[in-house]
Design brief:
With 162 residues, this protein is an alpha/beta fold. It is globular, with a radius of gyration of 15 Å. The chain has one domain: Glutaredoxin (3-Layer(aba) Sandwich), CATH 3.40.30. Helix content is 36%, strand content 22%. The protein has 5 helices and 9 strands, in the order ββαβαβαβαββββα. The strands form 3 sheets. The protein has a 5-stranded mixed beta sheet with strand order 5-4-3-8-9. Strands 1-2 form a two-stranded antiparallel sheet. Helix 2 packs parallel to helix 5. Strand 6 and strand 7 form a beta hairpin.
């Protein structure tokens, strides 16, 4: 696997299965069957200032993102218990996934191997499993709006092609 997340653009997203913060299991291939876009955002560590700003911005934007046909998932190398505490503390209304071994972060070229933490990257995956958006220069405060704009532009393209 390359160390450049941009190389995933236009390719099939690596499938994965990870534990959720609420005790369940999430599998990407199953989620894609819903016909929705998947916004897969990686963050370094739950309940740190930047990660909290980013998570809360996704929390606030979730109604609009859902209206644009997307589901939001946060991924970190934190254990499920830490993610669960983070979600409860900040009233997060989307699923957090625990990539404790860093395998999924690595598959998406989003693992800081020295610190063993996920890098702050986001991937937008179309319902057919293709990566249609990659964000590697993420501002925690503004990123949810950036993803929202991107999904709106995809929606506009789809309408124009119809």
């Amino acid at each position: 696997m390359s160390s450049d997340p941009e190389e995933l653009l236009g390719r099939k997203a690596p499938d994965f299965e990870l534990p959720t913060s609420d005790g369940g299991t999430f599998r990407l291939s199953e989620a894609l069957k819903s016909g929705r876009y998947v916004v897969l955002y990686f963050y370094p560590m739950a309940d740190t200032p930047g990660c909290t700003r980013e998570a809360c911005s996704f929390r606030e934007a979730l109604p609009d993102l859902s209206g644009l046909g997307a589901v939001v998932l946060g991924v970190s190398t934190d254990p499920p218990e830490r993610n669960a505490k983070f979600a409860r503390k900040h009233g997060l209304n989307f699923t957090l996934l625990s990539d404790v071994k860093g395998e999924v972060s690595k598959a998406y070229s989003s693992l800081n191997s020295i610190m063993r933490k996920s890098k702050r990257h986001t991937f937008v995956i179309a319902p057919d499993g293709t990566v249609v958006g990659v964000f590697t220069k993420v501002s925690p405060s503004d990123h949810a709006r950036e993803v929202q704009s991107f999904l709106r532009s995809l929606s506009s393209q789809t309408r124009a092609e119809s």
